[in-house]
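Data availability (excerpt). All sequences and predicted token strings are deposited with the supplementary files. A representative entry, S-adenosyl-L-methionine-dependent methyltransferase, is shown inline so that the format can be inspected without opening the archive.
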Amino acid sequence: MSRTDNDSWDITHSVGATALGVAAARAAGTESENPLISDPFARVFVDAAGEGIWSIYSDPKLLAEAIEMEPAVRTRIQLMIDFMATRTAFFDEFFLNAVDSGVRQVIILAAGLDARTWRLPWPDGTVVYELDQPKVLDFKSKTLREHGAQPAARLVNVPIDLRQDWPKALREAGYDATQPAVWSAEGLVRYLPAQAQDLLFERIHSLSAEGSWLASNVPGAGFTDPDKLRRQREDMQRMRAAAAKLVNAEVTDFDDLWYPEERTPVDRWLREHGWDVSAATFPELMARYGRSIPQDAQDSMPPTVCVSAQRRSG
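Structure token line:
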């Protein structure tokens, strides 16, 4: 089902299902022979959600059956696991560097099933604001509470659609825009129209005091290339077809959730607005963390750039 301006979702449908896919990949990465990350809560979320396309990532039996039907699935699944492990390691490291510098306000936009509030060693006095759809945050909180997990920082949930006036909701929840903050927009930007992307970063900028930090993974050069989009869609359709034969659940067409529109380069925009910026393509980032993209899977994932930035003084 294509996106609409006012669509919403729970954790097993539409954009919510992508959070389960990420959690399943994190679970598989955590349980692999050579783990790059440790996310003990990822498996908890996947088990609580039941079967779906995400099950192929984290259920070895289903994966084996899927590979038997469609051999190319093996490479695609491993790439997804490595991709998510690398992305997770990048954001983990970014957050810890920010709080090591003294920042104590953390804002996770489109928090999904990210469990950093529970699993990272936050310093005393850290406040983490998690923003996402109400049903997504409800599922997350309920699942972790039933598992007996306790946040490692002071958690403030801000249940809101990021297309609404989330800056007002964030301030009302206690956020202090006069103090530095560390922001993440992980796995978010490509699910926003180009105009909404611009508004997102304008709002972050307006709420960021000097010394604030920001990280995001954003569409890179070639994101709208028709040939790349066609190959990515064909690849994903094979995954969906295999999943549909194996799981007794609706299989979301993730390609319908993105907005393949020409966009403002985020790294350039931040530099023009007084941020010191570092940027790396995803192949560069994967190499940094000891992972790689197989030659026959170079076009399987959209071109992505990981951006990290700090707002300058003056």
